[in-house]
Amino acid sequence: MKNKFQEVLLSALSEIGYPTEKVIVQSPKNPDHGDFTTNYPMINSKEIGKSPMEIASIIVDKINSSGNELIDKIDSIPPGFINVKINKDMLSNQLKQIILSDSDYGKNDTGKNKSALIEFVSANPTGPLTVGHGRNAILGDTVCNILEWNGFNINREYYFNNAGRQMRVLGESVYVRYMELLGENLEIPDGGYEGLYIKDIAKIIFDTHQEKFKGDSSNKIFKQTAEEYIFEDIEKTLKKIGLKFDSFFNENTLYDNNDIDRTVNDLKAKNLIYEKDGATWFKATAAGRDMDRVIIKSTGEPTYRLPDIAYHRDKFDRNFDVIVDVFGADHMDAYPDVIAAIKSLDYDSDKIKVLIHQFVTVLKNGEPVKMSTRKANFISLDSLIDEVGADVTRFFFIMRSMNTHLNFDLDLAKEQSDANPVFYIQYAHARCCNMLRRFEGDLDSIDESSLEHLKLDIETQLINKLLTFSEVIRKSSQTLEPQNISNYLAELSSSFHSYYAKERVIDSDNKILTEARIYLVNATRIVIRNGLKVLGVSAPEQM
RNA sequence: GCACCCGUGGCUCAACUGGAUAGAGCAUCUGACUACGGAUCAGAAGGUUGCAGGUUCGAAUCCUGCCGGGUGUACCA
Question: Is the residue at A129 inside a domain?
Fold first, then answer.
């Protein structure tokens, strides 16, 4: 609908001879300002060389004189807005699109034949996922859903490293617990892992092998068993929130297929590598960064930046059109170096979108809990899901902008769950379903001409809201900010609840009005359900 | 010190990416079901958007400088 008005506006502009580059049409938050509004006169005033109000009235006159059936009323308002009311019949007619498209309503094909790789979670298998990982996981997954609704082919990828120092320490920690089971008390190594799950892993090894590995602290069985056990645990948790990865990328493969060496050589060929103090440096300053970085230590071991560069290169070589990285704020400093390197290697770094989310501060008894996987004082994502449920968990993490430092009060989480907006939205959906159940006619045979009875302001506002859904989806594919969708759904639900309380829908004395309104309710149901689907939240028919 | 993020009613957060009277939810107060589910609705109260300048028709949003909080700033990942 907005597009249609935009077309009318554009053709009017070109007839007058005004520039058509800067045209913004918005849905005003204040319904008194009409169905759509544009600030065109103000932002183009300088270029045209006339006052905004002058421009506005010229445009309004032009559109009025062309007598378009789409427009009911168009006005110029100081300091230079143009407000439009759409013909109500045209508006209510659009509901048909929603009903017809049904579960596809809101989808578009801007990403058709394009593929996107989204890397997220990427936690190394050193322990269960924390609440912090949860934010990353749900943000990433929702971004995937959004892109899918915009027609992209999505690959969800989990990158991990099972070779580093952390993993070695993990294995050693398991060994200590294993020895404990054999009656020997050893010290947990410096920086070792203290979580209870380490004991579980040790128990598994003990149960199957008894004392076979006594004294054999470096045996790879400790690390390997731990990795398998932890990954199983992680996948179980991810499954609980409905998340499934398409691929797991092991950092090791970059070494096995020589991508690491190849990357160093190619950077060298670009004259971006030099040796200093026995280490190998990447000349990041040449790419606009403020300092050079070591990529191979004097010990011969690469720093994490090198495999990261090689990994991103691999992503490009797999020919994705869009590459999204979802990182916590701790990667703030690292990724620009990676992008600088990628750019230097002649890849189109604009394809990469990096989403940085701030950390989650967990409050327990009003005190922040300092989370550390090693120290095992983290709050696991798994226990959070068990406590508040998958829907609330998902919704909670995307309803806020990723830029906020999220405070998660554990004690409040449970209490608040009754007042959580997710229930508000789900209830609106359940309400729609309930009304459709109560409706005694046949949904499919509603005469669409009855829609012209939807004349109340509150109805056109609801219809307008429903029709902006596809636009919300489209826009979120650009911003990659899922909270736009949850905000939208909360607003839509509010409009609906309000309508419900004010107007009787099912009225046996007025069959035709009932049909029109039930049609509207059905459309509302579809939009809410689709919106929740994008967020990965269930849309119950009863609660 | 430097880089990035944040600062919005008592609390947790929005604000269509520069638009019109800064909006919700919790908490507080007042109302609303013998008709579609009260997990709801209608209303009240609560604000100098951290502070000070600047940019322009217009700023919570952009720029500069302070103040306060977070994260990072390794030949750790």
Answer: yes
Residue A81's domain spans which residues?
A: 2-86
Nucleotide nearest to A79 (CA to C1'): B57
Q: What angle do CA A456, A460, A464 make, to 5 degrees?
A: 170
- Tell me the ipTM for this assembly: 0.93
**Which CATH number goes with the domain that contains A486?**
1.10.730.10
A435 C-beta less than 7 Å away from strand B: yes
Helices A196-209 and A220-240 meet at what angle, rounded to 10? 120
What value does the mean pLDDT take over residues A207-224?
91
> What pTM was estimated for this model as a whole?
0.93
Residue A359 CA and nucleotide B76 C1' are separated, in Å, by: 20
- Tell me, yes or no, whether A266 and A302 share the same domain: yes
Question: How many structural domains comprise chain A?
Answer: 4
The verdict on residue A515 lying in a domain is yes
- Distance between CA A306 and CA A325 in Å, rounded? 17
| Chain A 313-342 residues in 7 Å CB range of strand B | 329-334
- Which CATH number fits the domain that encloses residue A58? 3.30.1360.70
Positions 198-227 in A, CB within 7 angstroms of strand B: none
Distance from residue A400's CA to nucleotide B14's C1', rounded to whole Å = 8
Instruction: Identify which of A343, A347, A335 has the alpha carbon closest to the alpha carbon of residue A287.
Output: A343
- Strand A279-282 to A273-276 pairing: antiparallel
Is A475 part of any domain?
yes
Protein-proximal nucleotides of chain B (any atom < 7 Å from a CB): 2-6, 12-17, 19-21, 24-27, 35-37, 39-42, 57-58, 69-77
Same domain for A251 and A234: no
Is A382 a domain residue?
A: no
The verdict on whether omega for the bond into residue A79 sits within 30 degrees of 0, i.e. cis, is yes
- The 10s digit of each residue's pLDDT in A136-175 is 999 999 999 999 999 999 999 999 988 878 888 899 999 9
Strand segments, DSSP code E, in A224-328 are 247-250, 273-276, 279-282, 293-296, 322-328
For β-strands A360-364 and A322-328, DSSP reports them as: unpaired
Q: Does residue A95 share a domain with residue A80?
A: no
Nucleotide nearest to A421 (CA to C1'): B25
Strand-pair partners of A325? A119, A354
How far does the CA of A233 sit from the C1' of B21, in Å? 52
